[in-house]
Write a structure and sequence with these properties.
The chain has an eight-stranded parallel beta sheet, with no helix packed on it. A seven-stranded parallel beta sheet has the order 1-3-5-7-9-11-13, with no helix packed on it. 40% of the residues are buried. By secondary structure, it is mainly beta.
Length: 183
């Protein structure tokens, strides 16, 4: 098992390790590349992950509250039971990724790009997606029969072929949003 210092020393090369219970809160991980590994129950609150890439990485039970994710890329991965509340992810790119039971309370994902993403359960209240582009995104919440997208900020966002059946948009800001081929 790698220590936090060993992980930080390897940031200039792709990291394919299975990381567990590491405390990297507030650490600078700018441009880090995680490939085909896993991250479990890690402390990443307030970490600087700007420009980081997670490819085929499974992230489970990690604390990413307040993490800086601007221009980060998550592709072909799975985030499950993670807390991204108050995260700052302007320009974040999500592609072919599953977000299962994650918290996004107050996360600012302005201008983010989502393609072929599944959002299952979780808490998306007060999440900011202004000027975001969502293509082939599915929102589901099995326990509630629909996704609670209450108070979601989608002003100026572009949604193409998204599955929003039974979504609850109570108090959401949809001013200037464009929804094309969206159920």
């Amino acid at each position: 098992m790698l220590t936090p210092d060993e992980v930080l020393a390897q940031l200039d090369t792709p990291l394919t390790a299975h990381l567990e219970k590491l405390d990297l809160r507030g650490r600078r991980l700018t441009g880090a590349r995680f490939e085909r590994g896993s991250m479990r129950r890690m402390g990443l609150a307030d970490a600087d992950l700007r420009g980081a890439t997670l490819t085929g990485t499974e992230v489970v039970g990690c604390d990413l509250t307040g993490a800086r994710l601007a221009d980060a890329r998550i592709e072909g991965g799975r985030l499950e039971g993670c807390d991204l509340s108050r995260g700052q992810g302007a320009g974040l790119h999500l592609r072919q990724t599953s977000l299962v039971d994650c918290r996004f309370m107050g996360a600012d994902l302005t201008g983010s790009r989502w393609r072929s993403v599944e959002v299952e359960a979780g808490d998306t209240g007060y999440m900011g997606l202004e000027r975001a582009v969502l293509i082939d995104v599915r929102f589901r919440h099995g326990r509630m029969g629909g996704s609670p997208l209450m108070r979601l900020r989608l002003a100026g966002a572009f949604l193409l072929h998204c599955d929003l059946q039974h979504a609850n948009f109570y108090g959401a800001d949809l001013r200037g949003a464009v929804l094309v081929g969206t159920d």
